[in-house]
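Researcher: Next sequence.
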Amino acid sequence: MKPFYVAAIDFGTTFTGYASMSRNVFLSETKTIEGKEWHTDRWIRHKTPTSILFDESQLFHSFGYEAEMFYSDNIGSNTINLDNWHFFQNVKSDISEKQDHLLDDQFMLYDIRKKNRMEGIIVISEIIRYLKEDFLKILNQRLPDFDNHLVHWILTVPVIWDSTTRGFIRKAAIMAGIPSHKQTIILEPDAAAFYCDTKEVVISQGTDGCMSLQQMPLGVKYLVVDLGGGTIDITVHKKEQKRNDSYQKKALGLKWGGKKVNDCFEEYCSSEFKRFTAFKRKHPDDYLHLMENFEQEKMQFNVDKMNKRGNVKVGLPASFPKVDTTKLSITSDIFRSFYDTPINGLIEKLNQLLQSDVNEMQDIKLILVVGGFAESSIVINELKKNFRNFDIVVPEKPGLAVMHGAVLFGFLRDLEDNNVNLTERTPRRNTERQANSSRHRSRSDGKKVKHFLSDIVGREIIKAMRKEQLTQLVGQFQDKISKFKNEHVERDKVIVTLPIELRDLYKNKNNKTLEDGLTTFTDDVSCRRDKLIITSSFFRKSFL
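Model: Next structure:
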């Protein structure tokens, strides 16, 4: 069935967002892509920080700006003790660094204080779940009778992620309630190229000397340089009559993007202020404010400000080691030096690629630069200075090119063919490990799970569930059972994500939520939002 809506999730290192479009709008002349606007006290953005907060029971609390504000406002307060809460940032970088361990049952992510930890798959699935449900909530307010199963989801991933990591993201999306047949993965630079390709965009030079895109002729070869927060992806493309022939099977992923500028600022603070490390550990709320203030100055720092050679002033929290001023004054030269590592590394790699004898690199004259980091005139200025013989082109709103390209991709490409193509151009690495992930699921355990579910929600509801939804839910239980059999770590509780379909069926039949209904079942089983919580002792008694 062709999707009536396509929604794309751009899961970034520092910022994350989603965009969507209906088929009716796609078939119109405007092709307007809608995105969520995130409001703060100081600005409106099309993405929100990739920050997520869980409570002491490891249950989802909030995401994005809301999570940062709640954590910052309450850390160290007398009303709420956040010592056992879990606050995560930049988890995409952790995934990139630990790709070889993603299929391990014990893959854990540590929170920003390096004190508390959670299963990585749960953290990522809750990010996807939040974005999915936020989109569906807004959509259902506009279209109350809309069938949510008519949405197809596109998930963007960097080139640096191998097939195992993409499988990890697929599994997380399934846990978040997006069935495998309703999701498609696309490489971030592919989505960006697709965005520019479908806009049928050629290079033209304006009166101000800036290059822009109007229409890209057939046969032209070009590089896509995706400057993200955590990674920089470089891919080679060629405009063909058939869009699925545009990829040239050449990709390079680099592990430093715009976040590296923030890291260099932190290194500067550590070298200038001996108590900075202690400040970061003891005052995580003020540390968040400091980095938010730096991010704001970083967004406003451009070539004009650099050339004026004035000072950049970053607002300081009261607990910062330098207590005799409210602002940290940094010379423009030093502030510009924070960009050296990512810019120099990018230029070096581009030179290596463009000067190589590889056939794919021949005849390339166009470099298309996208991603949030591409909004920095500092970066674009350096690229233009170092690659004068190339057309350096930045589309309008480069930070949204990946997200918007992914939405168009959902309508203009055959989704099944994409999954095949993506597999073909990535190493078939760790496929055996992926296959093994379901081999431990025994049929007898599956029967026990179905009996258990029938007891708590009713046999009629289990029979009414769609086969794929029930299979995914039972699979979650089987994975938990296998963990209990094979590991010796005692846990207080077992948490399973319930699909929306089951909760809706229960509510329609019983005129109350599952959360309310389970209060009379047993003290060992409870429900909170979409989480079924079972005490470890009852879980062992029921399944082992």
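Model: The CA atoms of residues 230 and 257 lie 5 Å apart. Confidence is low (pLDDT under 50) at residues 200-208, 244-249, 414-439.
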